[in-house]
Specification:
Catalytic activity: S-methyl-L-methionine + L-homocysteine = 2 L-methionine + H(+)
Mean pLDDT: 92
InterPro entries: BHMT-like, HCY_dom, HCY_dom_sf, Hcy_S-methyltransferase
CATH superfamily: Homocysteine-binding-like domain
CATH architecture: Alpha-Beta Barrel
Radius of gyration: 18 Å
CATH topology: TIM Barrel
Enzyme class: transferase
Keywords: Amino-acid biosynthesis, Metal-binding, Methionine biosynthesis, Methyltransferase, Transferase, Zinc
Bound molecules: S-methyl-methionine, 2-amino-4-mercapto-butyric acid, zinc ion
Number of helices: 14
Pfam families: S-methyl_trans (PF02574)
Largest sheet: 8 strands, parallel
Structural class: alpha/beta
Strand content: 5-15%
Low-confidence stretches: 119-126, 336-343
CATH class: Alpha Beta
Length: 343
């Protein structure tokens, strides 16, 4: 799917139409890399695998495609030029590692389309399943590697200009990498949403983007800033083709979708985590504090009816979760062929 110079929102509407009204986003990447044996206890977190085990990243993308995903998100969530330079890479090498994250995802899509496109959870639909590669941009808090993307508290010295300088070149490299869209993920505060919006405008980024926030109370984003205000910033940015929530417990999602709908008609993207608790000090998930795959999937039709048209999972969700979501959406689409959020 090319970027083109047309109206960015057209691209997303066309894609959703081709997908049958609703699309499946992939599941947790970092946590699935860990499940496959990767040690992510490192400031680069999942981006460490770009350096030492790219084959694992490709395998996780392929597993999500086989499970029925229409959108796979690259391994650049915690890949930053600053983070790579701190490990001794040159600027050019760091930029190449960013592009590599998108190349691996594109490669996985090519392999899948050549070898497996008749299979997968989508049944006969999977033969013509449209697949997008989204280049992930995690927040400044993700780069800090201390769980700050779950607090959004950066301190007063972290100003708008500071954050713009932090993200500018990374955004440009990922926008030029061959990805279909940019996924700004786990956005913890209003300031960073404003920064992304201004960077998209100032740098005339040609591929579309989505803004996805996270919440720990079901009303506000994690910093305490109003979700409605954050979603309004995304709504006002012409480059943004979908607005949503990720890495947030499933029980909060329904109310958050309704809040976004109050201020935007753009497609809504939802990819909650498993609901388990993350201990940022120990860098560990508290297992068994979340919901089962079955419970997660029981929410899917409610989210779809409330207006979400892109649905997947974030941390600690797995290909099993995504397969079940694909099946649930397939059923929902048989009942209602055109998603209610497509206007
Ligand atoms: C979404 S949280 C689990 C991300 C983890 C964090 N950025 C880290 O580096 O450990
Ligand atoms: N796309 C990232 C988001 C982390 S919150 C991942 O799945 O690892
Ligand atoms: Zn997550």
């Amino acid at each position: 799917m090319g970027s083109g110079t047309g109206d960015p929102s057209e691209m997303m509407h066309d894609f959703l139409r081709q997908a049958g009204g609703c699309a499946v986003v992939d599941g947790g990447l970092a946590t699935e890399l860990e499940a496959k044996g990767a040690d992510l206890n490192d400031p680069l977190w999942s981006a460490k695998c770009l350096v030492d085990s790219p084959h694992l990243i490709r395998k996780v993308h392929l597993d999500y495609l086989e499970a029925g995903a229409n959108i796979i998100i690259s391994s650049s969530y915690q890949a930053t030029i600053q983070g790579f330079e701190a490990k001794g890479f040159s600027t050019a090498e760091s930029e190449a590692l960013l592009s590599k994250s998108v190349n691996i995802a594109c490669e996985a899509r090519d392999i899948f389309q050549k070898c497996f496109s008749d299979e997968g959870a989508g049944g006969s639909n999977s033969r013509k399943r449209p697949i997008l590669v989204a280049a992930s941009i995690g927040s400044y808090g993700a780069y800090l590697a201390d769980g700050s993307e779950y607090s959004g508290e950066y301190g007063e010295e972290v100003t708008m200009d500071f954050l713009k300088d932090f993200h500018r070149r990374r955004l440009q490299v990922l926008a030029d990498s061959g990805a279909d869209l940019i996924a700004f993920e786990t956005i913890p505060n209003k300031l960073e949403a404003q920064v992304y919006s201004e960077l998209l405008n100032e740098n005339n980024i040609e591929i579309p983007a989505w803004f996805s926030f996270n919440s720990k109370d079901g009303y506000n984003v994690v910093s305490g800033d109003s979700l409605v205000e954050c979603a309004s910033i995304a709504d006002a940015c012409k480059h943004v083709v979908a607005i949503g929530i990720n890495c947030t417990p499933p029980r909060f999602i329904h109310g958050l979708i309704l809040s976004i709908r109050k201020v935007s008609d753009k497609p809504i993207v939802i990819y909650p985590n498993s609901g388990e608790h993350y201990d940022a000090d120990k860098k560990e998930w508290m297992v068994s504090t979340g919901v089962s795959d079955e419970d997660f999937v029981s929410y899917v039709s409610t989210w779809h009816k409330a207006g979400a048209s892109l649905i997947g999972g974030c941390c600690r969700t797995t290909p099993r979760t995504i397969r079940a979501i694909a099946q649930a959406l397939n059923l929902a689409q048989q009942v209602s062929p055109v998603a209610s959020s497509l206007s």
